Amino acid sequence: MTGDVGTAWDERRVAFASAASWFTATVGLVGARWGRPALGEWDVRALVGHTSRALLTVEQYLARPAAAVDVPTSVAYFLAARSAGGGVAADVARRGREAGAALGADPVAALDALAARVLRAVSATTGDELVTSVVGGMRLAEYLPTRTFELVVHTVDLAVALDEPAEPPAAAGRAALDVVAALAAAEGTAGPVLLALTGRDALAPGFTLL
Predict the structure, then answer these.
(1) What's the rounded Cα separation, in Å, for the pair 30 and 43?
(2) Displacement of CA 204 from its chain's centroid (Å)
(3) Which of 166, 188, 162 is nearest to 176 (CA)?
(4) Where are the domains of the chain?
(5) Potential cystine with 107: which of 12, 103, 169, 182 (Cβ 3.0-4.6 Å)?
């Protein structure tokens, strides 16, 4: 990557690192509240476990190079994941619980080590690397923003569950909002989203871009 593209990759790495740091810092506030209800059927441990997969999959997918680009953009990733079909929600819930249990007796230390390891690996990349995601081959530069989005959204969930401040760092928040904006444009719902964000109208009950 060169020129503006290289700058964009640097910004994506910074946003990812910022989101990861906010996540681990928020996990550090959990204390004895691992069993507190958090999101849907998840308690805090399961939510943290699920969110940790946004780090773990980067490491795993870097170790599984793809032969070609099947998924060209971050938005295409989310659209492909959404269309994967039945049983996905139950699988996600189960994996979250399993990932939470796998963090062991000291989840904070386990996550700190994971984040440090993943950020070191990402710092050595160019963004051009082809990785094998759950929905097909894609460039790391397009996969990483999907993980930043997951880290930001679920750290907001975690902060709310803990009654802690739920405002992400600026770089991470911008990156997550970029994904939402791109999804709204791709889905033809930019109008309603803009009306809601500017106080002109409310979104329909149950509205989601995912």
Answers:
(1) 12
(2) 25
(3) 166
(4) 3-197
(5) 103
Per DSSP, what are the bridge partners of residue 37?
A: 43
Distance CA 124, CA 203 (A): 42
The token pair at 163 is: 């009654």
Token pair belonging to 93: 């819930």
CB 114 within 8 A of CB 55: yes
Across the chain, mean pLDDT equals: 93
DSSP 3-state of 67: coil
Q: Give CA–CA dist 7/22, Å, rounded.
A: 23
Check pLDDT > 50 for residue 3: no
DSSP state of 56: H
* Residue 166 burial (10 A CB sphere; 0-12, 13-18, 19+): middle
The dihedral region occupied by 206, where left means phi > 0, alpha psi between -120 and 50, and beta the remainder, is: left
> Does 85 have pLDDT greater than 70?
no
The dotted CATH code for 3-197 is 1.20.120.450
The CA distances from residue 132 to 4, 22, 142, 209, in Å, are 25, 26, 12, 24
Q: Is 65 helix (H, G, I), strand (E, B) or coil?
A: strand
Token pair of 177 as six digits: 């909002």
Beta bridge partners of 131: 65, 138
Closest to 39 measured CA to CA, from 89, 80, 103? 89
Q: In this predicted model, what pLDDT tens digit does every residue of 120-163 receive, in sequence order?
A: 999 999 999 999 999 999 999 999 999 999 999 999 999 999 99
Q: pTM of the full predicted structure?
A: 0.93
